[in-house]
Hints:
By secondary structure, the chain is an alpha/beta fold. It has helices at residues 83-89, 101-110, 120-128, 189-192, 211-221, 235-249, 259-268, 278-286, 316-326, 329-339, 357-360, 366-369, 394-406, and strands spanning 60-65, 92-97, 115-118, 132-133, 157-158, 161-162, 165-177, 202-205, 252-256, 273-277, 291-294, 300-310, 342-343, 372-374. The chain has 2 domains: 3-169 and 304-372, 3-Layer(aba) Sandwich (D-Maltodextrin-Binding Protein, domain 2), CATH 3.40.190.10; 171-301 and 377-406, 3-Layer(aba) Sandwich (D-Maltodextrin-Binding Protein, domain 2). It is built from 13 helices and 14 strands. The longest helix is centred in the middle third of the chain and has 15 residues, at 235-249. It starts with 59 loop residues before the first strand and ends with a helix. The relative contact order is 0.20.
Amino acid sequence: MKTAAACSVAALALAACSSSSDSASSAPAGSGAASAPAESQAAAPGGAAYAGPVGDGEGQLNILAWPGYAEDGSTDPSVDWVTPFEKATGCQVNVKTFGTSDEAVKLMQGGGWDVVSASGDATLRLIYGDTVQPVNTDLVPNYADIFPDLKMQKFNSVDGVAYGIPHGRGANLIMWNTDKVTGPIDSWAPTFEADSPYKGTVTAYDSPIFIADAAVYLMATKPELGITDPYALDQTQFQAAMDLLTQQKELVGEYWSDYTKSIDSFKSGTSTIGTSWQVIANLAKSEGVPVEAVKAKEGATGWSDTWMVAKDTPNINCAYKWLDWIVSPEANAQVAEWFGEAPANAKACDLTSDKTFCDTYHAGDTEYWKDVYYWNTPTANCLDGRTDTQCVPYSDWSTAWAELRSS
């Protein structure tokens, strides 16, 4: 991972770190006003995937992406997987970056965008909101080389129908300052338990989806709650997670959503232990901060991003050309290494400049990912299959998190 990647590497970087092709405050012509994210409770929408074949492109493509996922070389000529695509396909690309999954959902619902790189806490909202269409994986030749355990997951498919192409993945790790924390650390306990010796210097991810991190810890420490999926919480389970987060708040010195602030807080000593990403640990080390990061023994949440196609796109051929391009071994290797995540395409590992990259990010280590619970969208219909109760939907997660942070 290059230190120079500092402005594009993180999924939740601020707009200042976006590609210069970002359309700033306006969407492409024809987009409408954004609406609130929909709850994912109804049956999946109908509609068939594009039958193909993929023909000549329409000449343009409007992309919504996490910073670092659709770089055009304007800020660094050596980091460019958009311009080669444009030259190869004739599809001129307009990119807008977003900072959170909630923002991505609202922008997609507003219209005017053809494809989006959606994390698991957005995908079901887009699917059930009838915002995206099923994807015909037969029209994406590079899909054949995607790691099998990323295909047809609960967050990128419904009822055996694929709604996107996996892009990459990462786990949420526990990181600590080795000069200030007695290690090694292998548990989330010092970040949640009231008797933590690191009170006031714990850091935590600032998002409603972090409620799932508390649920993962409770799965291991309070099995009597019966949690089997951290995104499928009935009211009792949800309240237990919120109680744990309320307890944790007394320990937290700083919540973060911008990865650069996380690094700065470890540099300054404001934070000594807490939730992090592998790429944050790598960048912190490169800047001389003495940190280590591991997946905790209780397991972890994580993300697996998916390229999805807008239901009403007028640029369907360019969209499919992009899906295949961005997960090709060459492009997927570049993006994964620049961004700091495990690539989705198994063949990408032979093409990274750092030949140990895929080992560091556990790209093909199936066992590593077995207790990583990829972000998903909580719904009233319990995602764990229970039918005798209702689960707490994402809108209530958002409300509870806002109340916690403001209290």
